[in-house]
């Protein structure tokens, strides 16, 4: 059970593989329950640079999300945001297990 209520859904699209003919095959699509906050944050990206994000997504435990994936979220008004993650942070408990994952998009 998650620490915060996970009422929204996000879709994670994995990158496709090279098909050998100059194209790519479609990647896997995974849907996760999440808590999404639409807020502006300044975070440090994977290269150590500051970046501005518009979504903060909290996922339960340690889902399969990487910097190459495209995360898609549609809010209650029908506005869809589809971007790659800028920062992925795993929050751990005292025992070392992953409690939640925070993804900034």
From TrEMBL:
Top-rank taxon of the source lineage equals Bacteria
Q: What is this protein called?
A: Uncharacterized protein
Q: Which organism is it from?
A: Fontibacillus phaseoli
Which taxonomic lineage does the organism of this UniProt entry have?
Bacteria, Bacillati, Bacillota, Bacilli, Bacillales
